[in-house]
Specification:
single chain; 125 residues; alpha+beta; 4-stranded antiparallel sheet; 4 helices
């Protein structure tokens, strides 16, 4: 089993949920608004506001690096679904611009469904 943790843009959450469901991955956990940043030091909302001529956004461009709001999705899938999940997340979230997100993959040694006591992959489906 693999755990796939994806950090994505806030506005891509609904598209990502739908794409995962269509790919046969209907079970996942999504955390609310999280804050962070990668190597970039520009808050994209402020940059967009400055490009649209908002004076308050233009004033903030010179300040320290800001944290950007993102969403975090955690998915646990059988090994054979790992690449499907990764490909789906990339296809749905890739814009080619900084801030598209990150995907982390870790091994899961076991899972147990509390309600039935099912163990391993059977607890996932």
């Amino acid at each position: 089993m693999k755990e796939i943790i994806a950090i994505i843009r806030m506005k891509k959450m609904n598209d990502t949920k739908q794409a995962l469901i269509e790919a046969g991955i209907s079970s996942f956990t999504a955390l609310g608004r999280i804050l962070g940043r990668g190597k970039g030091q520009v808050h994209f909302d402020i940059l967009e506001g400055a490009e649209n001529g908002y004076p308050e956004a233009i004033e903030q461009l010179g300040g320290p690096p800001r944290l950007v709001a993102k969403r975090l999705i955690a998915i646990v899938v059988p090994d054979e679904m790992k690449q499907t999940a990764i490909d789906t997340i990339i296809k749905t979230n890739q814009t080619g611009k900084p801030g598209d997100g990150k995907i982390f993959v870790t091994d899961i040694t076991d899972s147990i469904r509390v309600r039935t006591g099912e163990i391993g992959d059977a607890a996932l489906v």
